[in-house]
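HUMAN: Please help interpret these tokens:
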Amino acid sequence: MSGRNGLVSSAMLEPTVSQRLGRGALIVVALLFLGGFLILPVVAVFAQALSQGWKFYFESIRQEDVLSALRLTALVASIAVPLNVVFGIAASWAITRFDFRGKNLLITLIDIPLSVSPVVAGMMYVEVFGLHGWLGPWLSEHNLHVIFAVPGIVLATVFVTFPFVARELIPFLQAQGSDEEVAAVVLGANGWNVFWRITLPNIKWALLYGTILAASRSIGEFGAVSVVSGHIRGQTTTLPLEVEMLYNEYSFTAAFAAASLLTLAAIVTLVIKKMIEVTSGWHEAPGEEEVES
């Protein structure tokens, strides 16, 4: 009987012809979608960037305006990402380890940049720090420049990227629990020792994962930065803005050459992300709904 049941079970598990056809059709559709909407545009960017040869390509990315935009992009990312790391660790620690009034409000505020258009975020900073904004007259009196200057670009970039680190750490810390930390406190460890010796080593892959996502978004941010930058070439244009300006000036090949740098940054980000997953066994943390369930 057991042998007969095994044959029946294996027969039931064997996919039918219609199921195999359906599976094949879904795979073909997925590949066509990826090819048409992802792979083909990436290939087109590099093809257009190299359409006039490698010499013109390197000359295009060595233009002073492009190099200035690249330096500003790196500067903004180097400021915004560490700030987001500090905020993400502090916010996730507070939310997952303490109960306090306003906790749900803090979680909601973290999600706001994910639901607000980056252009709207830029307009909010203009309303607050612009010449005719709430703090504009005071800033002007003290010769402080935020809008149409680097500080405004940094603020806008921080706003659009600060959920990434926190949103990786919060569900991970919730799933991990606090047993090890409580045990360390019982044994006499202080708060800093608990954080550096237990919490940080446990969250290092989630933290690195969120940091990479925040860095990738800060490098490619356009909408909010476009509003607060003023498009002052050589001073307040990041690399995405420089690509737009070159394209509007009909320097198509140069624009695609600059765009290829952003594409390469995205590809490097994906490679690092995959290496983290393979090396550490880390995958993106489950959502809060999954943790709570």
In short: The chain has 15 helices and no strands. Residues 285-293 have pLDDT under 50 and may be disordered. The longest helix spans residues 64-97.
